[in-house]
């Protein structure tokens, strides 16, 4: 990594999902994102921005005023520090009105050491938490 690349902002500033009810979405995302160390950073009448220091993820009413609909093939993946946090993310999401879309576990079909869980938020948006499980050192 060069000195110039270290001072660049991240490639992605933020992502948003469309929701039909900001309060209901807030209850779901408050639960799952707090497990990952994120919190509400900004909120207004049409959306809530979450992050650790700035709003990296938004749950918001669609800007065009149309009904929110999840994107086919679209999902948001959040980094987790370990498998226990992925499991807590999944449990918190189910308790907050989300639906299971893939229980916590290894996903060797993605890559060795990939551990993830998938949820559908109350509007059907697919969200994931994942971490890398270190492989044991070779003898």
Commentary on this structure:
With 139 residues, the chain is an alpha/beta fold. The protein is 22% helix and 33% strand. It contains 3 helices and 8 strands; from the N terminus they run H-E-H-E-E-E-E-H-E-E-E. It has helices spanning 3-6, 22-35, 83-95, and strands at 15-18, 39-44, 47-51, 57-60, 75-79, 99-106, 114-120, 126-132. The strands form 2 sheets. Strands 1-4-3-2 form a 4-stranded mixed beta sheet, with helices on one face. The mean pLDDT is 92.
Helix/strand structural class: alpha/beta
Strand content: 25-35%
Shape: globular
Arrangement of strands in the largest sheet: 1-4-3-2
Helix content: 10-25%
Question: What is the multimeric organization of the chains shown?
Answer: single chain
Radius of gyration: 16 Å
Tally of individual helices: 3
For this entry, give a set of tags.
single chain; 33% strand; four-stranded mixed sheet; 139 residues; 3 helices; alpha/beta
């Amino acid at each position: 990594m060069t000195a110039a690349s270290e001072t660049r902002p991240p490639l992605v500033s933020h992502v948003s999902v469309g929701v039909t009810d900001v309060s209901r979405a807030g209850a779901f995302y408050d639960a799952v994102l707090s497990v990952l160390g994120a919190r509400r950073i900004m909120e207004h009448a049409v959306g809530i921005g979450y992050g650790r220091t700035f709003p990296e993820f938004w749950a918001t009413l669609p800007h065009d005023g149309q009904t929110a609909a999840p994107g086919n093939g679209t999902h948001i993946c959040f980094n987790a520090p370990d498998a226990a946090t992925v499991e807590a993310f999944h449990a918190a999401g189910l308790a907050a009105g989300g639906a299971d879309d893939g229980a916590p576990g290894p996903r060797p079909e993605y890559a060795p050491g990939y551990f993830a869980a998938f949820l559908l938020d109350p509007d059907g948006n697919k969200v994931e938490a994942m971490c890398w499980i270190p492989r044991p050192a070779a003898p």
